[in-house]
Design goal:
Bound molecules: zinc ion
Helix content: 10-25%
Radius of gyration: 13 Å
Strand order of the largest sheet: 2-1-3
Number of helices: 2
Order of helices and strands: HEEHE
Strand content: 15-25%
Largest sheet: 3 strands, antiparallel
Number of strands: 3
Distance between the termini: 41 Å
Oligomer: single chain
Length: 65
């Protein structure tokens, strides 16, 4: 069983050690990284184990169509 979150963390930990959230791919519940690391296992309240990293909103001018 692979755990993509942990693999990503090893690579991005330096630049994203704060304000990192993960969203459950099934129910969309967001969990902060610090909360996840406190858990005995990476698992959503719904029981799903796959999360995607949610980057904090970047303040940047983006032209809308
Ligand atoms: Zn969930």
């Amino acid at each position: 069983m692979s755990e993509p979150i942990q693999e990503n963390n090893q690579r991005e930990e330096k630049q994203a050690s704060f304000s990192v959230f993960y969203a459950c791919m099934r129910c969309g519940t967001k969990v902060s990284q610090s909360e996840l690391t406190r858990l005995p296992e990476i698992k959503c309240i719904c029981g799903f184990r796959v999360f995607t990293k949610v980057r904090p909103p970047v303040v940047k001018t983006i032209k809308a169509f």
